[in-house]
């Protein structure tokens, strides 16, 4: 089985990798040993041709007529997604959204763990601990992140502060940012930014509801 984490794949396929991993984990819990592309597609809500095309980027993951080995594919996607070891994550912004993320138990679902959080220096939350996560002043972000052995950050700050915070994260060595701030960030080419815009997603949902 080919296992090249650097293989070039379309962005749409990359976005489905975690879905495939989740499905294979579920199949494994249900003691399902083999799964067809049709069964995988139905579990995710796509067509089987898309599953086969996605998998083709990684070489021979299964044999035609025999289906896909659930345990092997679960382990394969765990490695592709680096879910075999704990990934330390920082949270910047401990408002309502930030608090919700602190209370979301990432480590119980996948091997990701928020190890520290940051807020404005004058915020009453600074110096406290929430869900065993210390909250530091944002002025110490570069110093603390270098101590944390982490290259991933979640950004939930106001739009006006997003770029300056992103600059500090990049300077501290962060290579991946998940941003909930509705503003495009300017970062070096070796830094990956993923955006989550809940308002846009809700508006899209409402559009399709009205259209239907």
TrEMBL record:
- Where does this protein bind DNA? 19-58
Query: What family name appears in the similarity comment?
Result: Belongs to the transcriptional regulatory Rex family.
Described by its record, this protein's role is as follows:
Modulates transcription in response to changes in cellular NADH/NAD(+) redox state. Binds to the promoter of the aldehyde-alcohol dehydrogenase adhE gene. Functions as a redox-dependent repressor of adhE expression.
Q: Where are the transmembrane segments?
A: none
Looking at the Swiss-Prot or TrEMBL record, what is one Pfam family this protein matches? Answer: Put_DNA-bind_N
Where in or outside the cell it occurs: the entry states: Cytoplasm
The domain of life is Bacteria
Subunit info here reads: Homodimer.
The entry's cellular-component GO terms read: cytoplasm
- MF GO annotations: DNA binding; DNA-binding transcription factor activity
What keywords were assigned to this record? Answer: Cytoplasm, DNA-binding, NAD, Repressor, Transcription, Transcription regulation
Q: Does the keyword Nucleotide-binding apply?
A: no
Q: Which gene encodes it?
A: rex
Query: What is the protein's name according to its record?
Result: Redox-sensing transcriptional repressor Rex
Chain coiled-coil ranges:
none
Entry-linked NCBIfam families = PRK05472.1-1, PRK05472.1-3, PRK05472.1-5, PRK05472.2-3, PRK05472.2-4, PRK05472.2-5
The residue ranges of the CoA-binding domain are: 82-184
Query: Would you kindly state one Gene Ontology biological process term found in this protein's UniProt entry?
Result: negative regulation of DNA-templated transcription
Q: Which InterPro entries match?
A: CoA-bd, NAD(P)-bd_dom_sf, Rex_bacilli-type, Rex_DNA-bd_C_dom, Rex_streptococcus, Tscrpt_rep_Rex, WH-like_DNA-bd_sf, WH_DNA-bd_sf
Which residues are NAD(+)-binding? Answer: 93-98
């Amino acid at each position: 089985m080919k296992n090249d984490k650097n293989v070039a794949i379309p962005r749409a396929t990359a976005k489905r990798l975690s879905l495939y991993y989740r499905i294979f984990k579920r199949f494994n819990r249900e003691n399902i040993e083999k799964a067809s592309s049709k069964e995988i597609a139905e579990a995710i809500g796509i067509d089987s041709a898309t599953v086969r095309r996605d998998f083709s980027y990684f070489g021979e993951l299964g044999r035609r007529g025999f289906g896909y080995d659930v345990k092997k594919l679960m382990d394969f996607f765990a490695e592709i997604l680096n879910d075999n070891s704990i990934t330390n994550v920082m949270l910047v912004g401990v408002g309502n959204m930030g608090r919700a993320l602190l209370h979301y138990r990432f480590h119980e679902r996948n091997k990701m763990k928020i190890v520290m959080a940051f807020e404005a220096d004058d915020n009453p939350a600074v110096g406290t601990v929430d869900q065993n996560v210390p909250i530091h002043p944002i002025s110490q972000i570069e110093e603390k992140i270098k101590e944390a052995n982490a290259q991933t950050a979640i950004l939930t700050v106001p739009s006006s502060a997003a770029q300056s915070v992103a600059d500090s994260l990049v300077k501290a060595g962060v290579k991946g940012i998940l941003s909930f701030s509705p503003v495009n960030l300017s970062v070096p080419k070796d830094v990956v930014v993923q955006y989550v815009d809940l308002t846009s997603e809700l508006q899209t949902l409402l559009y399709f509801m009205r259209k239907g």
